[in-house]
Amino acid sequence: MTSTGAAAIAFQDHAALWSMGEIRASDVVNAACDALVAGLDTPGLRILAACTRAEADYDVHDLLPAALDELGLTFYPIGSETGQEAAARALARRMLAGELTPREFTFRLHQRHGHELPLTERLAELDDEYGILEYGDRPVDQVDAEVTAEARRLAAHPMTYDEPTDSSR
Question: pTM for this structure?
Answer without folding.
Answer: 0.86
